[in-house]
Amino acid sequence: MRNKVRSLVAVCITFCALIVTLCAGVTDRTARAQSNRSPQAHASTGTHDKKVSSDLRELVNGARSGDDLVRVILQSRRESGGNLQSLLRRNGVKVDQHFRNLDTRVVEVPAGMIDELAADPDVSYLSPDREVKTLGHVAVTTGAEAVRPAGTSGTAVPLDGTGIGIAVLDSGIYTSHMAFKTKDGLSTRLAVNVDFTGAKRMNLADSYGHGTHVAGLAAGGNGLYSGGYTGIAPNAKLINLAVLNNSGYGSTSWVLNALDWVMTNRALYNIRVVNMSLGTLAVDSYRNDPLCKAVRRLVDSGVVVVVAAGNLGSIKGQKYYGLIESPGNEPSALTVGASNTLGTDARGDDVITTYSSRGPTRSFWTDEAGVAHHDNLIKPDLVAPGNKLISAAGNDNYFITNYPELNVFKTNKDDIKMMYLSGTSMAAPIASGAAALLLQANPKLTPNMVKMILQYTAQPLAGYNMFEQGAGQLNIEGAVRLARMVRTDLTPDTPLGDPLLATGTTPLPETTIAGFTFPWAQGLIIDRTYATGSELISLNQGIYGNGVLISNGVLISNGVLISNGVLISNGITLGDQILTSNGYPLGGGTTFCSTGSLLADTDAASQDALSLGNSVLSDNGVLISNGVLISNGITTNFSFVWADTGGVFRGDQTTCMK
User: Which residues of 367-406 are buried (b: 16+ CB within 10 A; e: fewer)?
Assistant: First the structure.
């Protein structure tokens, strides 16, 4: 009964809040002040309309009567006459504030008085006390806020994920949280809730709390706290698939069951994006790993699958390479590491978190002679903000209960609680929300196109190598700009080398966010190398189709990586060095190791090439190989899948979003 009452109260509160927002200043009181004159709420003299802002005129015309109160910013001449003073002393008029240095007052007046005030020669202009929204840090620093108002090309629809389904495979979502309500606050954007954990009934409160936080970053909305914590795609449809229990653990079979469900129901709910902020140690090669193979099946069917890289970049203060988690080691997945914005919108000070898992992938297969062959793929594909981020909180969840310092607002209202969490779990849904925006802007994009666009437009962070950041940090402004230019008439039969863009010109490859301008990566990570060249976006490439791996366009010839000439057109260059970026496009920076070392895939050979024979990894961190997991005390129970927040949920202790 208590939950029903809470839901009813939540609906009422949301409806009232919506009315306040839409009316931009109509008071939340229901009492009406009485005017000394006959109400003329819908009348307009026309003569004085130039003194009344258009949105205030709409408020007046929409008022139920002339007695409805309107909160107004009144600007006047420096020396106001007695008539204006008399009007402001009238019964039912309240002067809330008087900014004498600005000749401006904040007043509450009956709607029927607006024209009378406008007729006074001492009044220079009247406008509503408009709502001033806080632009959420995550939405601003990623570039999402920059593309929001424009909507899809040729329409007035805001770019907010409308119509796109995002499946969240996690610990569940607190269904009553206001962040997941529709814009009118009367219903939910959660299209369906399915439990795969074997529980007798689904925990709709998300008592672990991880899934609610993840969903809020991807698609939280409804203007909570003046919009300061709005997700990337705040009107996307959410598909709530619980695969982790109340302790944050699950099983591979639970996740496979959920992925199979997505395959069956993707058209029914228009599921274009799957978010997996979870993982397990990547032991089996992606060729054999069941989670990786399931992810590949979904990507081949046209679904973008976003996976957290993992939080094993640093263990007991030691820097590790090679601990990308499964299924983040799957080449078709968009694998996301975590950056740290230090709480600033401008991106000039952004860094990679200490805990974000680094490549190369060290999952392996064993040949008939017992020799282990490592995948050695460059992962993550890119990074996104993931340190100490604020998002929606599950009801009475594990994190707030055990670590109350993570609770952001000390409120008793469960449906508006927010909390801090950190990890690549938090970075992944930001990329998932970005993918939803791209697909709303251009529904014809394939998963490989989404992956290419997000990498091509990413910001390379100076001082970090490709095993740490992939192509660079997510840049939604640039990605949406490029996505809108891609042709919508492409088919699997479109010839290699045909124009990819609807226009004959390529976009300016740079973005400015919060006053900081940075160049795009202008390249693409391809398994064990990277590709650069404007032809990646100007010409159609065979690697962008469904059912194709981006790496299928690359061949190994005499130990050298070359394009095969069938899936990749001429003019695209493949790199032969893994680089530490200088902050400029891919190809700029200093050598970290050679791509040739990644081709030495056998256990002994790759250890020698990447560590022993090349002092780089020995000097800068430990490279994981099979057998090292046990000796370093890392869990070896591979039957479990876990929420990858793990022990780093507090994040790097730096400045952060407030």
Answer: eeeeebbbbbbbbbbbbbbbbbbbbbbbbebbbbeeeeeb
Cα separation, 339 vs 553, whole angstroms: 30
Q: What percent of the chain has pLDDT over 90?
A: 58
Residue 204: CB atoms within 10 Å: 19
Partners of 187 in the β-ladder: none
CA distances 342 to 141, 185, 384, 468, 584, Å, are 11, 33, 13, 18, 21
Backbone angles phi, psi at 163, to 5 degrees: 90, -15
644 in active site: no
Tokens of 381: 């594909």
Task: For CA atoms 556, 558, 559, 560, give the dihedral sign.
Answer: negative
pTM: predicted TM-score of the whole model, two decimal places: 0.80
The residues pairing with 72 across neighbouring beta strands, listed in sequence order, are 107, 128
- Give the pairing of strands 123-128 and 104-110: unpaired
Residue from 176, 314, 391, 425 carrying the catalytic annotation:
425
Mean pLDDT of the residues in the chain: 85
For helices 424-441 and 476-485, what crossing angle results, to 10°? 30
Cβ neighbors of 480 (< 8 A, separation 6 or more) are 143, 147, 159, 437, 438, 441
Q: How far apart are CA 372 and CA 32, in angstroms?
A: 79
- pLDDT band for position 24 (50/70/90)? very low
Site of tokens 């999952």: 363
Residue of 120, 122, 129, 170 marked catalytic: 170
Helix residue ranges per DSSP H, 249-384: 252-265, 290-300
Evaluate if residue 38 carries a pLDDT over 60.
Answer: no
Q: CA torsion angle for 8, 14, 19, 23 (degrees, to 10)?
A: 170
CA atoms within 13 A on the CB side of 574: 23
- Please spell the DSSP secondary structure of 564-603, one letter per residue: -SSSS-TTPEEPSEEEEE-SSSTT-EEEEEETHHHH--BH
Measured CA to CA, the distance from residue 172 to residue 194 in angstroms comes to 9
- Partners of 94 in the beta sheet? 108
Q: According to the 3-state scheme, what is the secondary structure of 405-453? A: HHECCCCCCHHHCEEEECCHHHHHHHHHHHHHHHHHHCCCCCHHHHHHH
pLDDT in tens, 598-627: 888 777 777 777 875 666 777 788 887 654
Beta bridge mates, 384: 338
Closest CA to 472 of 463, 482, 481: 463
Q: Which of 177, 210, 213, 374 is catalytic?
A: 210
User: Can 170 be counted among the known catalytic residues?
Assistant: yes
Using the structure block, give the residue that is written with the tokens 């695209």: 572
**Distance from C-alpha of 242 to C-alpha of 173, rounded to nearest angstrom:** 8
Structure tokens at 27: 């008071």
Q: Are 305 and 340 in contact (CB under 8 A)?
A: no
Task: Tell me the two tokens of residue 584.
Answer: 């400029």
Q: Tell me the residue length of the chain.
A: 658
Range with lowest mean pLDDT among 11-15, 110-114, 174-178, 218-222: 11-15
Calpha distance 76→95 (Å, rounded) = 14
For residue 194, give the H/E element and its range. Answer: strand 190-195
**Does the active-site annotation cover 425?**
yes
Q: At what angle do helices 476-485 and 447-456 cross, to 10 degrees?
A: 130
Q: How do residues 411-444 score in pLDDT, each as one tens digit?
A: 889 999 999 999 999 999 999 999 999 999 999 9
